[in-house]
Design goal:
Layout: H1 2-14, E1 22-30, E2 38-46, E3 53-61, H2 64-69, E4 78-84, H3 92-95, E5 102-108, E6 114-123, E7 128-137, E8 145-151
Antiparallel strand pairs: 1-2, 2-3, 3-4, 5-6, 6-7, 7-8
Length: 159
């Protein structure tokens, strides 16, 4: 029992620093007679370490009885698009590469062992933030992934 408690505590701690998403909308893809329909959900989250970068992620959400009870495993399909929404100031941690490959978003996509993650990289040569979304699993991850790049552009005032 103690090992299970420690495992779930570790899972909870792993998601503390990642951003929380707001649901923007969803569309039904398959009608289910019992339980919620299968859907594609669109969510938005702000990068917790970079002010004025917002990412939009779309992902499959399994419905039916298992989906309604939170027992279904969602597919690894997801798409991501990130944009600059205001002036960006990068911290020294990001510029110096100490935040290389930082997880900025996580979402559980099965009861315990699978999650969707977004990782941020900084491309110093091109002055661009790169966001990679992928799904991982304790035993067997998926090579399905999506990428979005945000060039850091000076944000001037409109005259």
């Amino acid at each position: 029992m103690r090992k299970e408690w420690l495992f779930f505590l570790g899972l909870g701690c792993a998601t503390i620093n990642s951003a929380q998403a707001d649901q923007v909308g969803s569309v039904d893809t398959v009608f289910k007679l019992v339980g919620p329909d299968h859907k594609i959900v669109v969510e938005a989250f702000d990068d917790p370490d970079v002010k004025n970068v917002t990412c939009y992620i779309s992902r499959a959400k399994t419905g039916g009885v298992k989906g309604g009870l939170g027992l279904a495993e969602d597919t690894a399909d997801a798409a991501i698009s990130c944009q600059q929404v205001g002036p960006i100031a990068l911290s020294d941690k990001i510029i110096n590469g100490k935040a290389e490959g930082s997880v900025v978003f996580q979402k559980r996509t099965s009861l315990v062992f699978k999650k969707l993650q977004v990782v941020r990289f900084y491309d110093d040569k091109r002055n661009t933030l790169v966001y990679l979304s992928y799904s991982d699993r304790v035993v067997d991850g998926s090579p399905k992934n999506a990428l979005s790049a945000v060039p850091i552009i000076p944000w001037g005032e409109v005259k």
